[in-house]
Write the structure tokens for this entry.
Amino acid sequence: MKDVVVLSGGVGGARFTRALRDAAAGQGMRIRVIVNTADDMWMAGLRICPDLDSVTYTLAGVNDEQRGWGRIGETERVSAELHAWGIGWPWFTLGDLDLGMHIARTSLLRDGVPLSEAVARLTSRWDLGAELMPMTDDEVETHVVTGEGTMHFQEWWTRHRAKLPALGFDIRGAAEAVPAPGVVEAVLEADAVLFAPSNPVVSIGPILSVPGIREALASTSAPVVGVSPIIGGSVVRGMADACLTAVGTATDAAAVARRYGARSDGGVLDGWLVDLVDAHEVGELATRGITARAVPLWMTEAEAAQRLARDALALAGSL
Amino acid sequence: MKDVVVLSGGVGGARFTRALRDAAAGQGMRIRVIVNTADDMWMAGLRICPDLDSVTYTLAGVNDEQRGWGRIGETERVSAELHAWGIGWPWFTLGDLDLGMHIARTSLLRDGVPLSEAVARLTSRWDLGAELMPMTDDEVETHVVTGEGTMHFQEWWTRHRAKLPALGFDIRGAAEAVPAPGVVEAVLEADAVLFAPSNPVVSIGPILSVPGIREALASTSAPVVGVSPIIGGSVVRGMADACLTAVGTATDAAAVARRYGARSDGGVLDGWLVDLVDAHEVGELATRGITARAVPLWMTEAEAAQRLARDALALAGSL
């Protein structure tokens, strides 16, 4: 495998991508990561791109591993100022180091630089060992329909901790969005395409909803292999269950695979990794045209995560 | 004196205004400060308003008195990030606390809030004891013509320390600018108008260049009294001498007063405070219609600064 493309959301996808990079170290593998941007938002006049930043910080080794998000050694002096004025969302704190990224990115965007170019420029500061691509240069923002009104995904996710029952997701701007430069080419050129164990509804889902990306996945000669974000009927991290429930999909590894669908049947998956505890689902998925394999999915340590990445590559190689 | 208006630049004007407020404490005096905005700039996508911030921080008591600018207890974590990416001007460092102001202001401006309203909202966080008004809500930016090209005032002032000989100043946007709401009214209603000992060319000059403000000064019934920023042929602070030289005015208290001109002769001044060392200039200025008085001008301590403010009010009261 010389050319691998990963579809990724935030923290989970970041960890999987880091593991892939480290597992393939020295093998000359080109890794391109198509990152969800539908969590992005304008706040306090700044463009915030949570998933791009999570992947960047994690690959750069400057992420806060314990907290799970943001930069290590972070402080919140600027945020305290903004809160004193009531500027921005009081429940969404921006770290000082993180603000450097937001200000730099916003500055470039305001100058007319496309997001993909801004990402290339800002990530060039570190040797990430992977190329990050936003799914699109256009503004796409997921809004969540709830009984208390429709709100930006971040408000639902961060402020309400996804506890307000979601009635649906409106991925605004997706239908008119164009894949960022290189995204479709990356999928078509790849030796393998991997779906990180990211949220199927609000992370991988928006990527697939950008016209052209699903079509590229359908027509690429590369095998497409996903890693289940669900283990034994529970989410590995985050609140994907609340998202799945809203779209009528069970919180279950096989159910998520069925939601993606087999490429042979108009879907986007060839292979699917489930955890050992979900091994009983492998047979049923085979009847639906998805080659599943049961392996340990918990990325508890670097070694386990890298083994998972190797398992994903192995499954892709076998297809 | 129940209603006093001050025309102010940055640090010197801020100190004078603070002294005026403190000298008049308990007297029910309304103080409105018309602040120069021609030093303002866009940097890293943020709108920076150095003079407004200097006056705000000084009146709020959160300024760094020793360093002479910015916030006390300042850090530069965000700036270090921006510098790592080459975003912004490397010779212009933004403090973290200061960035809170820039982000908050820019956020409001991007939302369409006029600068004057943003200033009112942001300064309401503290009990300043004075109302700050930008000279205009329009973008005015001083550019400096030098032998090495024309550059933004901040580049000439901060990067080159005003050492590149200036051939002239282009106060861009001034001719089309409109005084901010309340500015003309404040001048017309005032019992006294005071020029802080700010730079006559690039601080007070731009305020006077906004159409309508000079006319208001000409027609107000209030006496207009200035404080010389020059003592014994030297600048009190900053590099006003480089600015005066560029416009053909000697670095001399009386020369600056002549530059402003007597109101009785189409200028903007009735009275002028010079330092004791410049007492010999009082007579000559009288022949030109400007009532000068020699008093100690050095604002070395709070007490001296407040005495100067009282001297300015006393001179105004005598006119």
About this structure: The CA atoms of residues 22 and 310 of chain B lie 10 Å apart. Chain B is about 40% helix and 20% strand. The first helix of chain B runs from residue 11 to 23. The domain at 3-138+174-318 of chain B is CATH 3.40.50.10680 (Rossmann fold).
